[in-house]
Each structure stands twice: as C-alpha cells, then as structure tokens.
Amino acid sequence: MAEWLAERFPREQEGELGRRLAFLVSQPVLAGVAETAGVEASLSVSPGEAKAGVAKRATVLADALEAALGALYLDGGLDAARNFVRRAWNDAMTVQADPPKDAKTALQEWAQKRGLELPAYEITGRSGPPHAPEFTVTVTVGANDALGIAGNRRAAEQAAAEALLMRLSP
Questions:
Q1: Which of 102, 98, 100, 96 lies closest to 160, judged by CA?
Q2: N or C end of the chain, less CB within 10 A?
Q3: Distance CA 110, CA 162 (A)
Q4: What is the DSSP letter of 95?
C-alpha cells in the first residue's frame, strides 16, 4: 500500500501520505473491501456466532481480510498480493482527491487554531454483552463537549469528535 501511495502521489508530503495510508488500512475500508471480495462466505463460525451475526461485523471482516492477504502473500508472493491490493482497493484509493482527515485530527487542528487545549476523551459508559460491547465516549474542548457511541473505544472517540465538529461548524 505504501509503495502504491508513493507512486500515485509522488509530490505529497509524508504527513499527507500517512493520512491516506491510515484511511486505506482503517477498519471501515478493510471491512468494505472484505465484503466486496466475499470474505464473509469463507468464514467458519459456530452456529451461535452465526446467529449473532459475528461474520458480518466490521472487526471480524477486517481481521479476516488481513489474514487472507497475509496468506496470499505467503502462498503467491509479493506480486500476487500487490495485484490483489491494487484491484481490491482501487475505489478506496481514488475516492478522495485530497488526503483524508479523520474527525479526531480535524478536531485537534480546530482546537489548536483557536489556542485551546487538545481534545480530552473519556469513556463515560459501557454497555452490552462481552461479544458486542457498546462504548460511550465524551470529548471535551474548552466549554464544548459531545458524545459518541460505537462498538469499540476508538470508533466511539471518532463518533464523538464528528459530533462535536458538526456542532462547532457554522
């Protein structure tokens, strides 16, 4: 992926390439590629997990895709892995003309431009069963705060940052 990014965007700075890389290997993108590639059909889960929809979860799909890509590399070599990556990620690679910026980064930059302290994230709730937890995170910047709820802490932090950015945007 890094090789492809350097080829495709030779004039971009390291930070911009890093944001692109982070986006392309993020869980939502990996899960989307896994869905398109039909990875779910190859997963073997217990009947109970199948009823709970485990094979459809983004975390499971992303992890399975990474494992399949590793197996492809070990079995077929670098060229086979490179060819698969370039086909499977082509849409994600071309969807954004500018380097993506995740909500947490955007919120941090918003705060810094205004001379405020960096955003503070706090887990303010956790519910759900162990196999499907739900995290509530509160982000605070100055006198502003917002909540985010998701199936893991990082996603809840991103959701909170997005919610606060939406509130702060004119």
A1: 102
A2: C
A3: 12
A4: S
Q: Does the pTM exceed 0.70? A: no
Domains of the chain, earliest start first: 2-94 (1.10.1520.10), 103-168 (3.30.160.20)
Expressed in percent and rounded to 5, the helix, strand and coil fractions of the chain are: 60, 15, 25
Q: Which two tokens stand for residue 88?
A: 């499977």
Which residue in the block uniquely carries the two structure tokens 């370039």? 86
Going from the C-alpha of 119 to that of each of 62, 108, 124, 136, 164, the distances in angstroms are: 28, 6, 15, 16, 10
pLDDT, tens digit, for every residue of 38-80? 999 999 888 888 888 888 888 899 999 999 999 999 999 999 9
CB 20 within 8 A of CB 9: yes
Determine the Cα–Cα distance for residues 49 and 153; give it in Å rounded to an integer: 22
Residue 151 near residue 60, CB atoms below 8 Å:
no
The count of C-alpha atoms lying within 13 angstroms of the C-alpha of 2, restricted to the half-sphere facing its C-beta, is 4
CB distance 83 to 68 below 8 Å: no
**Helices of type H across 9-152:** 14-24, 27-37, 47-51, 58-76, 78-88, 90-94, 103-113
Q: Which residues of 115-134 are buried (b: 16+ CB within 10 A; e: fewer)?
A: eeeebebeeeeeeeeeeeee
